[in-house]
Amino acid sequence: DTGVSQDPRHKITKRGQNVTFRCDPISEHNRLYWYRQTLGQGPEFLTYFQNEAQLEKSRLLSDRFSAERPKGSFSTLEIQRTEQGDSAMYLCASSYTGDTEAFFGQGTRLTVV
Amino acid sequence: SQELEQSPQSLIVQEGKNLTINCTSSKTLYGLYWYKQKYGEGLIFLMMLQKGGEEKSHEKITAKLDEKKQQSSLHITASQPSHAGIYLCGASNSGGSNYKLTFGKGTLLTVNP
pLDDT tens digits, residue range B40-94? Predict the structure, then answer.
């Protein structure tokens, strides 16, 4: 297992376009988290899945954002009608219930021009 | 909501010197996590502290959580260029190995050879 994988690593898009990111967690991990990190700030929690169920969403996750985790495996994060303020690093993390460590992926850096 | 304040914001040290990074919470911490991040990359887990007065060490890095569970410190002994990066503290205010974390803004460490 190569750890948490995120794709793409970088994405440049025009304002108003839709984008979708993918996260493949470590295979046996049942929990998956999405965070957003802007320059000079720490990561901010967006949403959390346990298996396929989305259990919590942050207020940061506006109606333009949607996340899914079909079949409890990989997850996708879609942003519709992107805005310049969406430019950030989007980080995915996974863990297993009871573990004290979550593993983060390398992130997807989104630039909205 | 919980806030974490890290100090200093940035730190430049000469190789071989010791250094300390602090993380202060506005609320009692259930779990305190330390991560390291290289610029533009994902987070690497360092240590997790839960109990008041707890101290953990890994190689040349020691993390402590105070008795009141509102402040943590990360100490690096005999720093090396490989220690350079952004150090982030993250806090959980609930149990169950929930990785909905609130992060500080990070401390940028530069180690000059």
Answer: 888 999 999 988 899 999 999 999 999 888 999 999 999 999 999 999 999 986 6
pLDDT digits (tens, 9 = 90+) for B5-26: 999 999 999 999 999 999 999 8
Q: Looking at CA atoms only, how far is residue B8 from chain A in angstroms?
A: 13
Task: Yes or no: say if B52 and B65 are a contact pair by the CB < 8 Å rule.
Answer: yes
The residues, any chain, with a CB within 8 Å of residue A84's CB and separated by 6 or more, are A15, A112, A113
Residue B58: alpha-carbon gap to chain centroid? 13
* pLDDT above 80 for A53: yes
What gap in Å lies between CA A15 and CA B40, rounded to an integer?
22
The two tokens of residue B29 are: 């911490």
B29 and B101 Cβ atoms separated by less than 8 Å: no
Would the CB atoms of B99 and A95 count as touching at under 8 Å? yes
CB contact under 8 A, B42 and A91: yes
DSSP A40: T
Q: Do B42 and A105 touch (CB under 8 A)?
A: yes
Among A42, A45, A99, the residue with its CB nearest the CB of B106 is A42
The SS3 of residue A99 is: coil
